[in-house]
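Forwarding these from the shared drive since the link keeps breaking.
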Amino acid sequence: MNQTKYVQLKQISSSLSPSDLVFTLEFNEALHMACSMLNNEEWDESLQEYATAFLEELRKKYPEKWNSSWRYDALLGYAYHIILNYEERYAAYKRAIDKIKPVPPQLLIAMARCCVAPGKPPITEEEAILLVKEAIKTTLYTEGVELLKGLYKSIGNTKEQNYWENILEGMNKNGPQLPSLDQIPNE
């Protein structure tokens, strides 16, 4: 995103509320704008918070379209992840999981990361381990192996931690990467 685009997005976010903006754009146009705001080059937190609220407004205005793909809730979960809203992150990922079977590995791993949250996380580290193992059962995604190693370290299981650390070391540095959750669904 160039500087001009960033300035335009900042102007939009300061002149219109998310609930007003959602009525000025079509669904796909709004989705693209929200993604540009979320992933802005400046990593501007206020723009990311605005984008998350904007996605929520989009979900309210277009419920049928929104519910047509698990990817929309996954994108919203990603947005909540960026702005560190742990409860809403979990809720969005849960809605996404409820919409697709089998659950894609990137969504399983995103849900597993929900065990990292202040207070009482919505899932336990043991549940997270099961989710990650499910995600990497056919392909050892680098992110999944790294998370699994960290989860075993966190629960004090050094045998499993070392096992996954060895797996990680043996993987190609450019090993399989998970598809991103911030991708706009293809129509």
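-- next protein --
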Amino acid sequence: MRVQDYIGKISWTVAEKALFLFYGVFVTFVQIRALTPEEYGLFGLLITLQTWVFTIADGMALQGIIQFGAADGERKSINTYALAGSSLIAVGVPLVIALVQHLAASAGWIAGNAQFSRIALLLPLYCLITIPKMFTMKLLLRDVQMKHIFWVNFSWFGTMTAMTLWMILHGTFAPKGGDALRYSGFESMVQIAFTGMAVSSVAGILAARKMLVFTRRIGQPLMRKFLGFGTPQALLGAIGTSVRQLDVAVIQYFFGSLNVVGLYTAAKTLYRVFEQGSDAVYVILYPAAIRLVHEGNTAQLRTVIAKAVSFAVVAAVASVVVLELGGTALLVSVLGSKYQAASGFFNVLVLGAVFLPFVPIGALYLAFNDSRLLLLNMTLSALGGLAALVIASALMVQWALPLGMVVFGALHAIQNFLYARRTIGLSIPSLLRAIPDTLNFVKSKVG
């Protein structure tokens, strides 16, 4: 595989991830500076729950669009099932959460019933607005329409960026103080998030309008195929994100402080830059792995995996070194003095970045139809991560809270590499090929 043959799609993918980077580094920093840790912690709980819900919906229904959508003859049925299934989960789960809000509050997941009541009431509406975007983005990803994916996300981030700047310039974003249960900064963030998602949903519908084909009938064989594939995927989503998403609930339970949740969430927001890089690699690898496995081209698949992981590992290691040598202090200082304590969280959390390049190897499990083995991988990794998180929380050792994500990432990476070595012969030396490949590419351009 020659990287330059894929430069077009890679360029749009990099541009799309640059949107996440710009919003996460610049706009989100501005938002965090204007919020108190308590406000940002409360907003973080809303986003965490919404992300967790759609992780389940994606595994149960939306992922099938890519897995089974290659055959044109079945696309109407696949689209219908995926939309109906994801909508049922995306609306049903938040409604269940809203119904049990009093039980969750009494269990100590958040500080007070009034705050969680607001989250529980907002969550169903937020998820409903998100459905069109998530569905159409999967259609675009199925056909590797990276250019359209870029513009849909551009409408999302562009809208939220414009609203943030407008509110700040007009003095309507900063918190007003007063009643501790009234978070004006939180309300501003909700308005920004809801509007941005609504605009991007409309953009997604417009971008994928020719792909929006449905049918009134879904055959039982297709339903069984979807359920057989989707059920393990949904479990994967629920278990795999238990550490990455619901860790804030565990921290809130033990510490009982939105301030700690806010500081920890701020560190995770910074760390999301690395996760976006891993997601970018997965976006390219997953469709390629499906195609190459179906073609029986193991050699090509091994080359694709090795190059993708290799370049990502080199970039991650270099970034971690810079941050651990003092880059973190400079980065966190941008958030303001209220968030300086987040430096300790981030310095531990960033150690997990060296394991993120191995996450996209998970596409191999799906390509080889080994979802149950991937589920076992995720379960073992999650148990290890949750154990580290709970121990650190129970002992009230704040700096060790990110170890949950680090341990989860390390266990997941090790198991992914061992699986790739067994199935396609991926070797440790091949993970260093990014260095000579880069040098050769530069020489070819210069010479």
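The longest helix spans residues 258-295. Confidence is low (pLDDT under 50) at residues 1-5.

- D.
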